[in-house]
Write a structure and sequence with these properties.
Structural class: mainly alpha
GO molecular function, one term: NF-kappaB binding
Order of helices and strands: HHHHHHHHEEH
Largest sheet: 2 strands, antiparallel
InterPro entries: COMM, COMMD4/6/7/8, COMMD7
Radius of gyration: 26 Å
Strand order of the largest sheet: 1-2
Shape: elongated
Protein name: COMM domain-containing protein
Number of strands: 2
Strand content: 5-15%
Number of domains: 2
Helix content: 55-70%
Organism: Buteo japonicus
């Protein structure tokens, strides 16, 4: 079961995925018996090369342009098809889906079993590399910038003559990327904390 079946709103949020894959089904035949690279496998290779080397945007666009010229496909519609296809592996990567789940998602979105199986095989080969890239990107986003720590001993007070408990205080400063809803939620929580602290002063 992939994320398409679990998250039905995926189809509502990304209708171009279904439309794009249907156009792909019509325009790019696949034949395992052909000795020459077929259109679909060639396009899949271009996509995975971009996914595993995301900084090479210019090369990716050049390869798409060459692919469109060789196969007599308009570049504009091809880019839309590619955007549609990339939604699935990006979502699969976030949810750590298996190749079989990716295959099921593509079939659910209207791709033929033959093409879906071919893409799933490529996903199985490339997913370890994509996972490492995603982890590296996460570490860069949630990067620890600074850390401060100190030991202390609690002192007595008017209520307790002697406490003497040892404590450790740690302050961590790290860089984190938030979506807009997460940012507003965080801002709301900080305002609540500020209001609570001011009520004690």
């Amino acid at each position: 079961m992939g994320f398409v079946k679990h998250e039905r709103r995926y189809l509502r949020l990304f209708p171009l995925t279904v439309f794009g894959l249907r156009r792909l089904e019509q325009q790019l035949p696949i034949s395992h018996e052909s000795q020459k690279p077929c259109q679909f496998s060639a396009l899949t290779e271009v996509l995975f090369r971009f996914l595993t080397e995301p900084k090479e945007v210019e090369r990716f666009l050049t390869q798409l342009s060459d692919f469109a010229t060789m196969n007599k496909i308009s570049l504009g519609p091809l880019k839309n098809i590619v955007k549609s296809i990339l939604l699935v592996p990006n979502g699969a990567l976030k949810r750590n889906l298996s190749s079989e789940q990716v295959r099921a998602d593509f079939i659910a979105l209207g791709l033929s079993e033959e093409k879906a199986s071919y893409f799933a095989e490529q996903w199985k080969v490339n997913s370890p590399t994509l996972t490492r890239l995603a982890v590296g990107q996460t570490l860069m986003i949630n990067q620890l910038i600074d850390m401060e720590w100190k030991f202390g001993v609690t002192a007595g007070s008017s209520e307790l003559e002697k406490v003497g408990s040892i404590f450790l205080q740690v302050n961590l400063l790290h860089q984190r990327e938030l979506t807009l809803p997460q940012f507003y939620s965080f801002l709301h929580e900080m305002e609540r904390v500020k209001t609570s602290l001011e009520s004690f002063s």
